[in-house]
TrEMBL record:
Biological process, per Gene Ontology: DNA integration
Protein name as catalogued: IS481 family transposase
Integrase catalytic domain span: 1-108
Molecular-function GO terms, alphabetical: nucleic acid binding
Source organism superkingdom: Bacteria
Amino acid sequence: GKLYLFVAIDRTSKFAFTELHAWANKLVAAQFLRNVIQAVPYTLHTVLTDNGIQFTNRSSDQYAFPHIFSRVCEEHGIEHRLTKIKHPWTNGQVERMNRTIKQATVKR
């Protein structure tokens, strides 16, 4: 079946933390962030994600509940930034890592 790759990269050290999941939903994304926080020996201050529904609410409704991924960021004092819509190169390090991992693992 299809698997979803979650990737976190430290921009300074280039340390990469990855997980494969059967689903790419907000609960999986929130747990992935918790796992990253536990895996690294330093404090995260900023997380940059795309605008997928696993990372952010699409609704601009001011009364909507905060997204669980944003809540995990807030609990740990992490700023959650989003890439510009339809500009994946804004998150170039992760896009490049995704390509490298895919080339190394996908059957041709």
